[in-house]
Structures are given as C-alpha cells and as structure tokens.
# Entry
Amino acid sequence: MKKRIAALLLITFVIILAGGCWSRVELTELAIVLGAGVDLAEDGRILLTLQIARPGAFTAGSEGGGRGKEAASWVISAEGRTVPEAERFLAMKIPRHIYWGHCIILVLGEELARREGTGIVTNFYQREREPRENIYVLVARGRARDFLETYSSLERTSAQAAGFLERMKTGYTVQLRELAEMLVSRGIQPAVTAVEVTEAGTMPGQVPGGPPPPQKEVGVAGTAVFKQDKLIGWLDPWETRGFLWLKGEIMKGVIIVPGPEQPEKLVSIRIRRGKTKIIPEYNGEYPRFLVKIQVEGDMVEQQTRENLATPEKIKLLEEEMASEIKARAEAALDKVQGEYGVDIFGFGEAFHRKYKKEWRKLKYHWDEEFSRAEVEIAVDAQIREIGLLTRRAGIPEE
Amino acid sequence: MIVLLIILFAGIILLEVPGLVKKKMWRELAAFAAYLAIGMALSIPQALGIRLPNPSKAIEALFKPVAELLK
Amino acid sequence: MLEQGKIDSKQAILLLISLVLPTAILTAPAITVKQAAQDAWLSIIVATMAGLLIAALVTGLSLRFPGKTLLEYAEEILGRLPGKMVGLLYIWWFLHGNALILDEYASFLCSALMPDTPVIVFFVFVTVVAALAVYSGLEVLSRFNQLFLPLVLGLLLVVFLLAAKDMEVTRLLPVFDKDAAAILKGAVIPASWFGEIVIFALLIPFLDRAEEAPRVAVTAILICGLYLLICILVVVMIFGPHVSARWIFPTFNTIRVVSIANFLERLESIAIAVWMFGGFAKIGIFYYAAALSSAQWLGLKDYRPLVAPVGVVLVALAALCRNIVELLNFLATAWPPYALGLFEAGIPLLLLVVARARGKGGRGA
Amino acid sequence: MVRFLKPRKPGMVKQSNQQVSQSRESSLPDTSWKEQVLSPDLDTNLAQIKAILDRCSDVMYREFIFAQNEQIRLALIYTDGLTDKEQISEQITKALALEVAMAAPGQEISKSRALEFIKQRGLCVNEIKQTDKIREIIQAILSGDSVLLMDGYATAIINGTRGWASRAISEPEAEPTVRGARDSFVETLRTNTALLRRRISSPNLKIEVFKLGEVTNTEVAVAYIEGIVNEKLVAEVKSRLQRIKVDAILESGYIEELIEDHPWSPFPTVNHTEKPDRAAAMLLEGRVAILVDGTPFVLTVPNLFVEHLHAAEDYYERFIFTTAVRVIRFFSAFISLTLPALYIAAVSFHPELLPTTLLLSIAGQREAVPFPVFMEVLVMELTFETLREAGIRLPRPLGQAVSIVGALVIGEAAVRAGLVAAATVIVVAFTGIASFTFAYSASIAFRLLRFTLMFLSAAMGLFGLITGVALIGIHLCSLRSFGVPYLSPAVPMTGTDLKDVVFRAPLWAMFTRPRLIARQNQERQEQNLKPAPPETRPRG
# Structure
C-alpha cells in the first residue's frame, strides 16, 4: 500500500514538476531596480525612469573594487500612458526581468505631481506584489530623472543614498503606506519629502591637474505639500522643522537663540526629544486647536563670553528657545494654513478623535474649516545638558 | 492537461480498486466509483475548456435577500 | 467504528484552532474593518461571543449522544429520511466550504508568493498533502497539526511584536465611531468563521476524554478570538482603518512592513511558509470531515477508499471559481447566511430543539 | 482502545517462512545427523563427528586414557582458536589423565563408575553439561566449548572452555564524548553483557539469549530490566526476533532491518549505541536492548526521534549547558535538512527574502557563474557527499589528504574559476558541518531528504519546500517504533516527558520515566532531591 502511495505521489510530482518552473528567475536574469522616478513627458504621457543596480560592482573582495572604476547603477527611461505600460516599454530595452522587490525610493517629478497628481502612480506600487509598502516616496524639485541620474560619493548609488537620508530622518519621511493612508483619510492631507540635486563638496584628485569638479549629490529640500493628490507647494527646510515639531513627528533640529546678555552673539541648542499634543476644541461654529509642544535640548555652542552655566541664565535661554520654536512653528503653520489651506498636520484626525459626531458633518469640507481654525501654540522648552564645558574657554579672564 | 487528468484518474483507480476488490468491499467500491464519477464530471469538462456553472453562484442567489443586509 | 485513533484534549484544541484561524487571520481584518472601521476589534469580541455560543451548542448537542457523530445523531433525532437529508447537506457543505478555503488559500499564495504559477498547481499540491494526512487517519492529522501549529502561532506573535515599532495607538481612536449596527455587521463574517467549529461534532467521539469537549471548544474559540483581536489591532494600528479596509490580505502587508534595524525585515516569505502549515491543516480537517461523513452516511466500513476521489471533487470544485473578486464577494455576502445561518447555528439549533422535544439523547446539556 | 502494538499478519508470514526454510534446507548437505544421538562406542561417535566436521581443520581431537586406566578411553574435541587452551590442558586433560588418581587414592576406578567419577571429581572446569544429542555436541564444539566423549557411554560432557582472542575494550569510535565513560562494547557478546551487568548490578537485569541465523547460529541477547520494562514490549521484541529465519546475522544491522516497524521509511526506528553507559540508561528508561555477538553495536527499542539528537554526554554535563547545546543540535538538524533548499528558493524564486545589500552581493558573485543555482548547489552537494564517503572509505592517513585536497578544490579553485559562487560554497559547507552535529544514523535520513527538498524547491520555490517539509512531517507523525509514536513526547505531547527533549531538566527534577515507554513503573526517584545549602533545606 505504502509503496503504491509513494509511487503515486512521485508520479504526480514528476508530472507537475515537468510542467515547468513557473516563477523561477535566476539572480543573473534580474534587473534589480533600486530607485524609480516618474515624470511627465511633453505630450502628457508618463516618463518612467529606473535606476538599476549593476551587480558586478557590488562584489566584495579584491577583484570587485567596483566603485570608481565602473558605475554601480544604470539609469534608463521610457514613456507610456500608464506606469505598467512604460515598464513594458522599458522591458524592451532591458535584457532582464525588471525586479521591483528591492526598490528603495519612488521619486515623483515636480511637473507630474503638480499636474497629474500621485494617484496615477502610486496605485501600481501598492497593487503589485514586488514593490513594498515601505518604499520611500519623494518629490523632486525639477525632474525625477535628473535626480536619479546623480550618483553618490559615500553610497554605491544615489537611490541608496536617498534611502539612507530618509532613514536618518532629516526631513519629513513618508513611506508609501503612509502616503496611502494620508491620501484616503479626510483628516489629513499628504505631504512628502522634497528632494533636489545639489552640488555637494568635491572629491579631490579625480582629474589630474585642474580643480576637482563639483559633485552632484542628492539632498533633502524640505517638504512637498499636497492637496488631495496634487502638489500645491513647498515648505523649505527651515519651515519643515516647524512643521515637524507641530506634528510631533521628529523632534530634532538646532535652535539658534541670542545670548541673554549679548544679543548680537548667538547660542546654539540642539533639540534631543520632545512631544506634541494637539487639543482640539469646538464651539459649534469653528474649531480651535491648542498645540502643546514640549521639547528638551542640550546647549551645544555659545558665541557669547558670559557664563551661561547658572540656573538663571539657563532659564532665560529656555524662554528664548521656546519663543524661537514657537516662531518657526507659526511660520510653517501660517504658510500652510494661509497660503495652501490644507491640513497636512492631521488636525482633522485629532478633531475626529475628540468630536466624532461633529466630524461627520465637518469632514466633507475640512480644509475650509481648517483654514479658518484658530491655532494656539504653547511651547515648553527645557535645557538638560550643556555638554562638557561650563564656560567658554579661550578668553582671558578679566 | 486532459492527459494528465486521465493519468491521475488511472492512478487513483489503480491505487484503490485492487485492494477493495480483494477485500470484497463492494459497498466501498460503489461509493468510490460514485465520487470518482462526480469528480470526472466536474473536472474533465473544465480540462476541455468548458465552463461549468459555479454552485457558489446558486447559493449566492439563494441567500441574496439576507446577503443584501450585509452590503 | 470508522476511525480507530484517539486524540487527546490538547490535540483537539489545536485542531480546532487550525480549523478557524489560518484563513480567518488572512482576510478577517480587511472584511471587518470595512464594516466597523477602527472599531473592528469590538466586532471581533462580539464574534468571539457568538463563537462561544455555537461551541456550547455543538458540544452540548454532541454530549447528549456520546460516541456518535453529527450525522449519526441527526438521524436519531429527526428520523431516518430527514436525518439523511441533513447529512447530505453537511457533506455538501464540507466539500463546498473546503473548496472555498482551498480557493482562498491558493489565491493568496498565488498573488503573494508565486504569481506566475497557475492556481491549479497549488490546488493539486495542497490537496495531495492534505490527502496523505487524511489517509493516515485522524491521529496523524492531529499530530501533524500539533507539530506545526505552535510554530504558526509563535511566529505570528513574534511578527506582531516586531511590528510594534510602526504602530500608533491613536489610529484606533475614536472608539465607537461607528454605530452598533456597523459593529454587528462587522462581526457576522468572523462569527461565521468561528462557527466552523461545528465540525467538532464529528470529532467528539474520537476524543479520549469526551467529557472535556466543552472546555476544548471554548479554549480553542478563545485562543482564536485572541489572535484575531491582536491581529486586527495590529493591522489598524499600522495602516489606519482606511488603508486596512482596502488591502485584500492586510496581515500579509503588516508582515511586509516589519523592519527592525534595517536587518530584520522582509519576513513575509518566511511567514507565508510557516503559515502554509496552518493552511494544510485546515484543508485537511475539512477534507477529513467530508471523507468521514460520506463514509458514515453510506454506512461504509472504511473511509479511506473515498479519500482520493473526494480530493478530485475538491480540486474540481475549487477550480470552478473564476477569480478572487468572485470569491471575496461570495465570502463577504453569501457565506455568512449560508454557513452561519444554516450549518453552524441553524441546523444544530433545530437538532437540539427537536431532541429536547422528543426527549432523545442521554442527558441534558 | 489505544493501539499499543501494531498487529502483524502472522498467518501469511509464517507460511512463507516455512516454504523458504524447507526449500533452502534441501539444498544444504545431509542434515540427518541433527536428530541423532550418541552410541556407546567411542570410535563410532568419533567417526560420526569427524564425518560431520569433515574438512574443518580447526577442530581438534585429543584421545587419551583416564587416570592410567587403559580400559577407559576418553576423547576431547574442541575448536582451536575458540577455546582457552591453557584451561583445557590444566583443568581437563591434566586433571583427568593424572590428578584424579592422586586426588582419590585407593578408590578403584572402574569403567562403570567412571562417568560419575569424572563429573564429580575429574573435571576442574566451572560449567559442565551432559548431553547425548549430536546436534548439541556439534553446536558446543563450534561455539568454543570442549566436548568430552567416553568409551562405553552414550553421553558427552560439554565443558565451558570458551576463550578466544578478542579485541580489548577501547574508546568508542562512533560516539566520542568529552565527559563520561570511555569504554565501548566489543565484538564478544559475553563481554558486552558483562559491561551491562557491571553498570546495573541488579537481579532485575535480565539477559535472555537466542540463537539466530540458520548457518551462523549467532547468539543474540535480549536485555531488559524487569519491573521497569513493559512486559508486552519484551514479548513483542521476542516474537519479532523469533520470526527471523535467515542464513546469517553478521551485524546488528541485520536484526534492525528485520524487526523495524517501517521498513520503507528513511528514518531509523531502532536506535543503536556502542556505549555501555548509554545502553544502560536506555534500559533504565524501560527500553529493551538487543545485543548481537560479533558487533559492538547494541540495538535499543523503542526508539524516539529525539534520541538521535541527544548524546550520552547530555546527562553528564550540567543541564543549562546541555540545553544550549541541544538547541544548537536541533537547529543544525533543521539546517542540514533545509538550508540548501532554502538558498535555492531564496535566490531563484524569492529574492525579496534577502536584504538589499546581501542580494546585490550574491547577485554580483553570481554574475559570472554559468549554471542555474540549483545545478550549482546540487553539484556542490554531490561533491561534498562524495568527499565524505571517500574520507570514510580510505585508509585513515589518506582520508585526511582527500579531505584537504577536496576542501581546497571546492573552496578555492572552483570559486576562483567562477564555476560556483562563494555564497554557495558557504551554504554547502555549513550544511555539511551541521549534519555532523547529531547521530549518524539520523543524519543519513536528513541528507537523503535534503536532496528531495532541493528538487522541490528548485521547481516550486518556498511552496515546494514547505510541501516537502509537510510531507516529511506527516510521514514522521505516522511512524511508530514498537508501539510508541516516533515523535513523542513532543507529538503527541506528554507533558511530563517534555523535560527531556530540547530542554534537559536537571536530574533532580526528572522524577519520572518516559511515560509511553516505561508504562508500568513511572516513578524514577524521590521528589525532593534538589540540592540546597543546609539552612534553606525544607525540614522534616
């Protein structure tokens, strides 16, 4: 009996296995996409740009030595009416299977984001199996293609560099799944990292004789603000900080305040951690918000000569710090609320949490409600450490 | 496809029938044959590319009034 | 007796968990969240209650007729002909239900793991594995389940813990945003999955201590409920109610999001691999139920000759479903009244009422 | 009812056995002597024995007279090499020919009283036995005893003079340990039973001897501890042994194959050991040991899967360390079964499994490799298995050379030539190492199944791999060894026995014997044995 079962199993397996190996793709047949960019072409079609890894450059060991000698990536683009169509056109040029599983960033061109919106792009990346939910979404100031064409001096490819920049949380980091959440929620409008191509330092000695050429590098350039799924404006890096503090998202940054006794000289304080609490109130006519920001920071530099290591001075500094934070947060708020009129802070969500009945009416025109909402910002700042020094050295004592 | 199916059916029959006949389990043999017949009736047309009605559709229609509540 | 083996209470609990959890945990969050948004976890609690009621009903009914399975005592209660009719209905339900499960399982594997593979390949392979387990008898099936289910349960917990980094409790607020009707609606489908525990009525005679059946059923339902609850909370805390409702397999997406220290990530293939054991077990149990009850219905001496042809019917039935939209639609609308209303609550309730009225059965439950 | 022992089909088996033995016996030389008895005439007897043992040059015949009485002729027959010659000359020949007369001066030794005299006074040997059956006499001669024939008597005295050159007890070759006893079973049954008896000096240790093998007449001993062992198990073992009707039992492997429950399974359901301490431990847990003359490997049944992942030393080292080591062993077992298949699945089906940098690095290595990853792994695995086999077969000094050359060829040259990726070498090497961490008999099964899994994985990726693992799982779940589920105590779970699977409980906490093996006598020791400094020790 057992024998016959075994034989039957064997026959089944052999027949099915002989049928073919369906999803099998050898690594050497894969074109591993590290970054993808989507632009709008002149005729209104979509221009898909891929940054594809060249595995030969990634071999460890003596023979590899890829960087410097050969480029680690290959950038190629094609047009199409939809993203999958452009991908199919690309497949005609790429002799391997286009593999999305390790795509790190998705860059949207400014034009595309403004005119067509993200909707026609991101759906593909969510529906497809290969691209992952935690792809970082970026908006390039300018063309996404230009962004992908740069290369990095530290990382092998610019896509990886951008990925690491995102992971370092230097800007408002948004993954695809978070973007999707912001897109479907009425209580928050999308905002994603804005990036640009910048000149970043030099690598000496590359061209014999002559000055070293400037490096084109990827860099974070603030935040892109969306209304529904269309780009409507930017926040610069300075405003982005204020925006992040308001959202309570990444409580980092350096605050520059004037010295208590010598206002023309500056003191730098680095924010270590913090908390933001949004307290909505509703009186039946318009919503009000009280935003409580609590931050802790360390003093990292002083240009002033005075001794700041006294409780009184620290107290003064804390007040300065609080007002500076408040100013920056207000700047971001004013720009978003006044100029763009979209709720990228998630005030709507906070409102929803507290006033769920009222929200059912307000949610359909929330952006207008948000524009006329009164927002009060209260900052409580605290200085914890002053580094390894008490007083500034290098000045002779009187 | 159809060849595979026939091999499969032949395999199943070879696996079970001799034992049943030897042990004179006629009742079991009849049940076996009935099930296999149903299986053939359902699978061979599909292998030939004929679309059979899905019983789920009938059940869906049957429970439609109740199901509407859940939409 | 058709089945020689005996299973102990621990194995029975694990079998019942396998009977409910593996496919429920895949699609439950999406379907429930669609109805009840961030209050989906309340729906699950309600559904668990319903599951407990069904468990009490089924075990109570079965304990009145010690040593007999559902099909056997249905005949005793209702008389020969109506009893046979009920039996036939159940056999159909085991087959059809299993075909749907197989469909769900294969579509998931197909869209999540190997999109280029024809679905029929998954059907055949899974059925062959399940058939082997069923052929080897209930003892082997339950041991197989006992061997691998702890792995599934453990891995799920670990994954949920690892995903904690991306969770935000505020996504669960406000509580009671939806009205009671929505929460109840959201509870219906999970309840119909919990109700699959009705198959336990076929297994109770093979417990080595049948009197522990109620405890077994309740424990299993509670564990399943707990897992579904955690699962839904995690999914909503990661994706928020809006996005969660839009995925087809939200738990799968949750596992994809896990990323610890840029190293412990991309776990989904491993998770699917481990979860597949649960799928084998679930399909195996339904398969076993179909084969065993067919044999009982026809009064055979052995269910084993039926295993192979039942497998063929199963694959053929599963192949009838054209695409996943059809399947999801059926599961979301027709399945609850069909399964819950008829087989899981309706008929057992009817049997209990008639049994009481006619005074059949050993002792009141 | 719980099925304890699977019923076999006795009717059919017996029939076929009889047929076989009948047909075989007819092809053997004349066997009519088997039923015959001795005659009173010494010469007739000698002639008959010589005829039976024709052309057996190692059988010696020594004729002499008893205590200078020329009337009483004696003949001593023994096999040279199997007997202790000193014992024969000192205790039999010399004693009979010279010393009896001196020991009993004045007593007249008549022919009619000679037998009594010899039995009572003449022989200084410890064990003697009297018989008149030719069959027994032949048997005794061939197993090393010496047979004394006497003119005028139709009876023979069998003297226990066994003693042959045997290998000294040495360190176990197959089961080396760091801590624990260093002795090992040898090829002599008596020595082996002695090793067991030395460890368990209890009257309850029973050792029953059978003769198996129509031609070889090998002695096979069944050892168990009465009161601990399940009586049904002993009966089953005996009945399975008595079923065996083969020409030869040359090694315990013969017995293993003839008594195991699942002959078609790749997994061993009978365990073997060459360490007396391990065998003793098995007996004390209620198992039965089968010792076979001529081999140092002792079988123990019933056998559980986990035994193959345990080592004798596990109980000598401290329990925390043992548990940690066992985790490594279980992990290794998993690795040795699945790692190459996982690697194939990950690289050729699911690149999303690997972290980006690792994927790029592997992809870079593989750029130049001309084969699909499955072929690469398959060839490397086969190479590895070939090398391993070569290493075992070759004389020891050469074996080392082979492994060095092999390692160099695979590790360096193949990678440099771009024939295989470095990652593949690492995978294969790690798999190979992992398969050496647990018992050889089980690792053979794992190695075989590994190839199956690799095929499945190459065809269907992770899905194929898991299907294969599930099939193996179902198979393992359906195995039983002498009525005990193979995967117990894990599956079915017997709570108290889980203390010795992966986790090894401290000895003072192992109160009970394995429940499914020692069914009647569960209690192993007292419950409050946990050592503690005096002040915290519970009073009373």
Remarks:
- Chain C touches chain A at residues 111-118, 121, 124-125, 128, 132, 135, 170, 173-174, 176-177, 238-240, 242-243, 246, 253, 256-257, 259, 262 (CB under 8 Å).
